[in-house]
Design goal:
single chain; 123 residues; mainly beta; four-stranded antiparallel sheet; 48% strand
């Protein structure tokens, strides 16, 4: 599976962005999909994950109620709608695919990674 993330940019605090992750390959629907982010000088951290069916969704506590992860298996695409953005959300966001369950929160749970897309939130 090859992953291509897009949709990042510069936005003011309180604004919104929608990230997309396009996947190649016919087995996209079999994988749990996740979003991770990494800010400068910090370790990569889990943001959200969604099971292959979309029935199981998990979020990092700091983004609950503001971010929404979703997927369209017919279009091999993963999304992350980000609302009420804060300066602390500034990071490079990456999408990932793995064979596990929806509750996959660790980088080692994922096999395939896309390149990141930069999200910058100004105060």
């Amino acid at each position: 599976v090859q992953l291509q993330a897009s949709g990042g940019g510069l936005v003011q605090a309180g604004g919104s962005l929608r990230l997309s992750c396009a996947a190649s390959g016919r087995t996209f629907s079999r994988y749990v999909m996740g979003w991770f982010r990494q800010a400068p000088g910090k370790e990569r951290e889990f943001v959200a994950a969604i099971s292959w069916s979309g029935n199981s969704i998990y979020y990092q506590d700091s983004v609950k109620g503001r971010f929404t992860i979703s997927r369209d298996n017919t279009k091999n695409t993963l999304f992350l709608q980000m609302n009420s953005l804060k300066p602390e959300d500034t990071a490079v966001y990456s999408c990932a695919a793995g064979p596990g369950s929806g509750n996959s929160r660790q980088p080692h749970d994922y096999t395939y990674w896309g390149q990141g897309t930069q999200v910058t939130v100004s105060s």
